[in-house]
Design a protein that fits this description.
By secondary structure, the chain is an alpha/beta fold. It is built from seven helices and six strands; from the N terminus they run αβαβαβαβαβαβα. It binds zinc ion.
């Protein structure tokens, strides 16, 4: 796994040609495919479900046959049933918003029991407090740099300070346990700000 990964979001794809679009970004060097799931309940928008993930999974291959992880970002409430459905559909990484799950520790465990990497997502105004108590069960920390619900928004600057804080917690966990946790930033990442985020 490279030190830095690019995970293009499916929200930016032409939904009428998803397989083709996924193959195109993989050919261009995408490390993960970011799959945004919105439920018109936790967020005011509706996107795609496990059936679409299952249909795309066979397209998540590099020319050498290796697998490109399907990185499923659940913006749904409740979380558990859909997390299970996406694990069965072939997701490699499943992240959810802690405020959308009644029992965060249990949901993390449930995702990992399916053989997936589990992650927590933090909205722009959300503190990282919960991370401190479950970091031993977290494989990915995803910071929202826009408010979840729509593509095409501008990067929220306070994410940079939160990013530095999350990195300190992740480094402390690596020192403690030797585990690698990926830090992911979602929304408004463009050529003009990606270096500062990195
Ligand atoms: Zn996302």
């Amino acid at each position: 796994m490279p030190a830095f990964c690019i995970a293009p979001s499916i929200l930016s794809a032409d939904f009428a040609r998803l397989g083709e679009e996924v193959r195109a970004v993989i050919e261009a060097g995408a490390d993960w495919i970011h799959f945004d799931v919105m439920d018109n309940h936790y967020v005011p928008n509706l996107t795609i479900g496990p059936a679409v993930a299952a249909a795309l999974e066979p397209h998540c291959r590099r020319p050498d046959g290796s697998t490109v992880p399907l990185d499923v970002h659940l913006m749904v409430q409740p979380v558990d049933a859909l997390a299970l459905a996406f694990a069965k559909a072939g997701a490699d990484i499943i992240t959810f918003h802690p405020d959308a799950s009644t029992h965060v520790d249990r949901t993390l465990q449930l995702i990992r029991d399916q053989g997936c990497r589990a992650g927590l997502v933090f909205n722009p105004a959300a503190p990282l407090d919960v991370l401190e108590w479950v970091i031993d069960k977290v494989d990915v920390v995803l910071l929202m740099s826009v408010n979840p619900g729509f593509g095409g928004q501008s990067f929220i600057e306070s994410t940079l300070a939160k990013c530095a804080r999350a990195r300190r917690l992740i480094d402390a966990e690596r020192q403690r346990s030797g585990r690698e946790i990926r830090l992911e930033v979602d929304g408004g990442i463009k050529v003009d700000n990606i270096r500062r985020v990195a």
